[in-house]
Amino acid sequence: MKSIQELLKAKPWLGWIVFTITVVVVFFLGLLASSIIERRAEAVFAYTPEITFSPDEPRNEIWGEVFPREYNSYTLTADTTFRSKYNGSATVDMLEESPNMAVLWAGYLFSRDYKQGRGHYHAVEDIQKTLRTGAPVNGVPSPQPNTCWACKSPDVPRLMNKTGVAEFYKETWDTKGSEIINPIGCADCHDSKTMNLRISRPALLEAFTSMGRDINKVSHQEMRSLVCAQCHVEYYFNKKMFEGVQYLVFPWKNGTTAEEIEKYYDETGFSDWTHALSRAPMLKAQHPDYEIYLSGVHASRGVSCADCHMPFISEGGQKFTDHHIQSPLNNVANSCQVCHREETQQLIKDVYSRQDKIIETRNILETLLVRCHVEAKTAWDKGAGEEQMKDILNDIRRAQWRWDFSAAGHGNSFHSPVELSRIIAGGISIAQEARIKLARVLSSLEYNLEVPYPDISTKSKAQSYIGLDMGSVNQEKKLFLQTVLPEWIKTGRIREQNEFVSAK
Q1: What 8-state DSSP symbol labels residue 242?
Q2: Phi, then psi, of 498 in degrees rounded to 5
Q3: Could you tell me the sign of the dihedral formed by the alpha carbons of 9, 12, 16, 17, in that order?
Q4: H helix intervals, 237-343
Q5: What is the pTM of this model?
Q6: Confidence of residue 5 (pLDDT cuts 50, 70, 90)
Q7: pLDDT tens-place string over residues 162-177
Q8: Helix or strand (DSSP H, E) at 274
Q9: Maximal CA-CA distance, the chain
Q10: pLDDT tens digits for 264-296?
Q11: Which helix (H) or strand (E) element contains residue 312?
Q12: 187, pLDDT greater than 50
């Protein structure tokens, strides 16, 4: 066998080929090395910013001067075009979708207005515009307390640090109108100096203490869910802790299941309102997303809220958390398919299948509850006594709590379909028992006819049936939005210019 030198001597052109290949390889290795050096320098820049703004800085755009990738992705939450089969970021009037809800909430402000949330970017705007906060004009206060602001803005921890927690909750919603103008964002979840995840809402800290848990000992992965659990939970306003204060409390002392929370409310004698038709002492579930998530398979596998709703993405060689907080169905590749290998359309089909089945059974319970309220009103009208109705009203309370617990969560049909099926089944059973008892009461009152049911096929018909004058309600709100709200925003922006400095 000839040596390389002999081959090159015999065939000189081979040397030129080897030389050319060597040059090409060296060139591309140089490019690779340059890219690595560039990305390392970029990473240093991305992860070691100089923070010069206030620890209580509520303006997301100021944080964005230092964290442009995260901020730019966050601004995408302003987009409201995406809508899945049942959820998404688009505005959906749920009372139009299901007029039954207006009857279920008769006597409560949710019967006026209930729209699907559009996302964090619109949080402040949506609470300003909802009919539930009333029309505080000409000295008329809002029907809601300041506590309603608690999860809507990074201005909230700023004010809590300034005034104290109980003092923040004090007074009516309108008194903080010019102080809370920034939508949910950076300061709600991050420490401004370290960028570590933080709990900025004391209600969650207090809830952990009530359960005998130390939140400081949770893992970083758990924190990627707990920063969401500051707001995406069941809660109520405790009026007994401090005089004149509606204090925000997460009712987790007994646990986080629907029954454990119900037990807590029963033990404390709490009810959100008395139903206008049935006179039942009712509970209104808020949005128990975290509680339902805990019972699902993703939680048991250690998957956090952020893994699906804020997955990691790369830009310019830099890996970071996508702050376009949205439905995973609008980002299947970066969320679902990180773990699941099925095709996109198959994954979406599986989600819809679970949602379809849950909503089918939930609607059965919803219809039964409307009949319960109407039949209870008929019993009262026919002369039923308090003792006759006591157990029935408690059944209505318990059945509707289960319906609301399953309906109020944004993605609960997917988060834990088995648990939701169990809860809804329990609600159907209780509602049927209530109707059997109502039939006996009506019979004892010598009423053996079928109870007539109202035409509530539209939102307006349902609201009219429960006695709402929506014309005047909407007119009053329009006046507030035209006269008071612009002044709130103007005053708030002037205050910020004087109170805070830029990041640069």
Answers
A1: S
A2: -90, -20
A3: negative
A4: 258-268, 289-294, 297-300, 305-309
A5: 0.89
A6: low
A7: 999 999 999 999 999 9
A8: strand 273-274
A9: 119
A10: 999 999 999 999 999 999 999 999 999 999 999
A11: strand 312-315
A12: yes
* Distance, CA of 92 to CA of 231 (rounded, Å): 21
| Mean pLDDT (whole number) for 88-103 | 94
Residue 35, pLDDT > 60, answer no
Cα angle 417, 419, 421 (rounded to 5 degrees) comes to: 65
- Give the chain's end-to-end CA distance (angstroms, integer): 71
Kind plus residue range of the DSSP H or E element containing 249: strand 247-249
Tell me which residue has tokens 């035409």. 455
Residue 36 has pLDDT above 70, yes or no: no
Size (the chain), residues: 504
State how far the alpha carbon of 177 is from the alpha carbons of 62, 112, 125, 142, 313, in Å: 21, 21, 11, 11, 36
For residue 206, pLDDT over 80 is answered with yes
In the chain, domain spans: 4-47, 60-498
CB 225 within 8 A of CB 305: yes
Q: Is 119 left (phi over 0), alpha (psi -120 to 50) or beta?
A: left
Looking at residue 345, its amino acid is Q
d(CA 173, CA 308): 33
Determine contact, residues 466/103, Cβ cutoff 8 Å.
yes
Structure tokens at 388: 């006759």
Q: What is the mean pLDDT of residues 136-148?
A: 95
Q: What CATH topology corresponds to 60-498?
A: Flavocytochrome C3; Chain A, domain 2 (1.10.1130)
Q: List the beta bridge partners of residue 197.
A: 190
C-alpha 109/C-alpha 433 separation (Å) is 28
At residue 65, the 3 state secondary structure works out as coil
